[in-house]
């Protein structure tokens, strides 16, 4: 999200509002905040975290809990995340002058891609705050206005009522008396509310049913965590009708207690999670229980192994995912302890309790007797495995033979590239460091294996490795990978081991690997030569809705956009492959609302990711295209424009491109833009820097300077800024180095701000989301004199041009050896 407009409207030496760009702490969940703002016109500011900013709307009358009431919400500029904590006075005379008070805050969630829903004009979401709860909608009204207008309204769910935001101001510190008088509802009881009434809860005599179960006994439930029952790991599912078999969900174990109606949630090791997962707390509250103890697993998505990373990313605020607590045991219910009740009876009552489960709760069903069949079904659906439980078993904390887990374990072969020393009583080798072959880096670190060894195997390995190795890694370490290799000896790939794999992290590092076999009979080169079973070939990306019109002025369809990118694939890939990437997606075509996306989202299967630290201090998963299918997946998702970083995903802190964007202001003739490009080239040549030329597909031109081996971003930004400022100072009648609109008529803005960590520039051969379907096109310097505009090349012309072109004007750009080192001292 862009905070340019937020910055432009504020003077941070005059207002206490937070300034963007200041480092913050680690985020936890995606947040929302609603603030009551007494500006020139009193209104509520409604803000949702999308990516690394708060999408914001001004809602004059505030949210209504009545689903039939649709409130106007005027879209305003994005705000920084720190704004969620802002309260107090904005000085009069400043933008938005007046008092700001926090009305409500919490976390929010949506199913699917928030940015895509906003671009389409309908966002369905849930709020988990103190006041605002349940499902909500934001729908673009379709009215043309400088500030887009939306409608905000409540979903018809358990939290719907006739309450208005103005009825809930008793605890809001912003002229409450005046606000309460303005509500005009005329009901004194509503004017004293701080939270809406709780939703109607189910009423059923669960105590009567619980008391009839065998082994049930009256007991008082303590308001504290209880130690959960755990399973022992087995090699195969147990046989016999005395066993029940459940899916082993890949998530976090949570237990829940309800004491006098108060719900609390706890991790397996008794850490309280109640505030971390408010949607789960609210869901259990809706069951209407006075006392209960429940056991389950917190999951995201379907709860398979592939969804575990989504769960982690959702809990850290990096992605949006819907969370569910899958319940598989009932330990206490409304005054009765059920720990001595047979499992099959406990589960039957739990199933009744969840006959119509609230959102975010689910019942974990089971298969009686058929352990191998249950295991095969779970494995086929990519679950982690199964849990087998004695049907007549009681509940007790800790591990026992009454619960057994059988994990779905896949194995793979890796080269051994190092070893760590043993710890504690384990002498010699502690673990082996592993690598997999990689076409770009040769070998890439894949993790470690430290379990599954016999004493004889350890002695055999020590003799084989001997004194080989040094302290420096001999393979590429992926960005963000946890190494934990203190005291390791690294060496070139020496031999092969086969390991069991129980999961892979976002960075490609193994989780909980264990040794299957030592393969001294194999050479690591065998792994490169295809000794491993080849991965099944995936079908090419299918383009849906190929007849949908994307460029209405020319009738160009989504199918034609896909055909264009296929036609230029070998030309566009070198400029974007292996780089952090931002894209512009236009779900309804180039003439409608489009949005900017840089973070990896759930559902992307062909597009890779890299975990990078952002300016605000948090980590996020960025898009990375590795091949043609990754690019086509983004095209299928209505990606039109591709904007890569000036650095690679593997070395994000070192720039290998400098881009000067020559952007003409109103009244600048095209001949002057051409001359400016030649002048920039000449000045760079005087500094012994070779440069290349590209049309932008818009009004101007890009002059691109390759760097090899590259420079730190601070140096690149300083150099680019100094170069632009020098042009503006020596020729102020022609150039300007600031983006101030009122100063730009008749001048060329030398935009150097594309040269910072995280900044992007449009890729060569990328379409632009403008009328005419123009293309950003590399050209030779010899062609500049004949060039008629920055958008001369389009979707139809470029493929024809490539067929008749004899030489790539950017040929050899990656082999140019030049750097900015000599300019770091101000030469």
TrEMBL record:
It comes from Lysobacter defluvii IMMIB APB-9 = DSM 18482. Its cofactor is Mn(2+). Residues 178-192, 524-540 have a biased composition (Basic and acidic residues). Keywords: ATP-binding, DNA damage, DNA recombination, DNA repair, DNA-binding, DNA-directed DNA polymerase, Exonuclease, Hydrolase, Ligase, Manganese, Metal-binding, Multifunctional enzyme, Nuclease, Nucleotide-binding, Nucleotidyltransferase, Transferase. The lineage of its organism: Bacteria, Pseudomonadati, Pseudomonadota, Gammaproteobacteria, Lysobacterales. Its EC number is 6.5.1.1. It holds the Pfam family DNA_ligase_A_M. This is DNA ligase (ATP). PANTHER family: BIFUNCTIONAL NON-HOMOLOGOUS END JOINING PROTEIN LIGD. The keyword Transport does not apply. Residues 1-23, 178-220, 524-544 are annotated as: Disordered. Gene3D superfamilies: 3.30.1490.70, DNA ligase/mRNA capping enzyme, DNA primase, PRIM domain, Nucleic acid-binding proteins. InterPro entries: DNA_ligase_ATP-dep_C, DNA_ligase_ATP-dep_cent, LigD_ligase_dom, LigD_PE_domain, LigD_pol_dom, NA-bd_OB-fold, NHEJ_ligase_prk, NHEJ_LigD. It catalyses: ATP + (deoxyribonucleotide)n-3'-hydroxyl + 5'-phospho-(deoxyribonucleotide)m = (deoxyribonucleotide)n+m + AMP + diphosphate. GO terms for molecular function: ATP binding; DNA binding; DNA ligase (ATP) activity; DNA-directed DNA polymerase activity; exonuclease activity; metal ion binding. Residues 316-434 form the ATP-dependent DNA ligase family profile domain. It comes from the Bacteria.
